[in-house]
Amino acid sequence: MTGSLIRLEIRRSRMLVGWLAIICAAYAGVIAAMYPTMLANSAMLDEYMKVWPKEMLAVFGMEGSITDPGTFFDTYVGGMLWPVAAAIGGILLATRSTAADVDRGWTELSLAAPISRSRYLVVAIANQVLAMAVLAASTVAAMVVVGALVGPGFDAPRYAVAGVGAFAFGCAIAAVTTLLGTLTLSRGIAGGAVAGILLAMYLLEAVAKIEPNLDWVAGLSAFEYFDAGAIIDSGVVPWSDLGVFAAVSMAGWALAVLVFRRRDILA
Amino acid sequence: MPAISDAIELLQLTKYYGRRRGVIDLEVGVREGEVFGFLGPNGAGKTTTIRLLTGLIRPTSGRATIFGLDTWRDTVAVHRRLAYLGSDPGYLGELTSAELLDHLAALRGLPRGAWRGLVERLELDPTVQIRKLSRGNRQKVGVVQAFMGEEPLLVMDEPTTGLDPLMQRVFLGLVAEARSAGRTVFLSSHNLPEVERSCDRVGIIREGRLIEITTVQTILAGHWRSINLVLGSPVASGFFDLPNVEVVASTDRELHLMVRGDVNPLLGRIARLDVRDVAITTPDIEDVFLRYYNGGGGATDAVGAETGTDGRLPSLSDEPPPDEPPPGPGASAPADAGPHDRLPEEVA
Prior knowledge:
Radius of gyration of chain B: 22 Å
Oligomer: heterodimer
Strand content of chain B: 25-35%
Mean pLDDT of chain B: 80
């Protein structure tokens, strides 16, 4: 029974996750392929970056030399590709099981079988976790593999830890979307709200970096807890940041299951 | 109160969606092995009732039980005992019928291919992706999935919508087989002939309230039928003077009669004539509702009192249907209508 649910969830997700993984890997691979060129011209790039206001560079995570592996990752992946890819994957997968399937009448049919609502949603959540793992792994693996092929490469263990941070960030997005999806049963509202929240968080992070007096608002932003550059450059596993994402994810999913168990399933 | 051994019991079942009415104080008992039809116009509360039965929504008050199990609290246990067909199931278009049916079979603990015999009976190609199927063929998928198990209760919401007459007949055969096997069937419908052929009793719901539970025979016995005759020669005036027959229109050799209740006396007279053609029209659901809402059916007074209106259904035409007879003596209280089979009194 559960096996059939899992197989169907994976089957329904494979196109979305597959294409996102390919896009992430292709983008990360191309970026990694550029890295030797950037290394060879690091002095010129550093001079070039001095032209730009420090605040603007901070907004894009370009603190330090862009040829530092950590700053490089943050600039092109952590602060750009990953939030977009994780948001697309998380929002589409999380609102599918909680809102879109209810709207189309599929949930009604599935839940008419002797399967609990909790189990039904937990399987969908497991699928989200798997999808985020695939996306994070494909992104980081592409960078590490291409980096090794074209030049000195990147520190694979440190990039792997950055990948774990990216995975945790993506899970938090999916969990909050799942909760909003179960509360609203609307793909548009839940997806739009999460996209808006992410954008607002990105702006908060930027404001905190630009205006020292408002640096406290950074704590309200998820981006504050996803500092892949620091992970890669320092080699320290950011347990507290991972803990924040884990807590948000677990709370979001647990609340979603609770809400889903108790609410009317009604298009 | 419904009897303890009923397959389905609705006890003062009420559902509001915020301030919007769903159903109010439903009291229904469906006996094991019975085929029970649930009739009502759009928005009457049929689908709400079925969603309450399947545990998809929580009652505002009252309760629904299936084989003694609360449909909201014991949902999984209830679902082991029922098969469900929704009015507009949202199948996954990317799957073939076979894949979808195997998935649903697995969720219900049925073996792979449990649907094969039914697919052949309903002439459904299981290898085609569902998104490529016509409306009728999608409905066949629903019928197959509903009947592929052996759950003791079948709950179906307008199950024959989109099916052609041939497939409707197959469906009725499946219902008959289910009844023979001792299974209980609860179905909502707009299709009176379907209900007439399949159901032992019907519940009629209007604006969220149960108007009456009765037998199909009782409904039809109190209702008119339209008979159009083409005769070989003109008939004498007064030939059809029978208490339950009215001549609505006549030309030289064509007659439009209306009859209600026992049709045998009329058929006896028709048999004496040189009949070239005959058409007997079954009253449609609208006729039945108009009767129940316009003074017939025995529950009208209560309905009028509840609604504070003249009891007519707003969504139905105020014009009588073409085959509706002119009001005549006794039209609001048919002399031949049987006693109403209202369940609470019956089983209390």
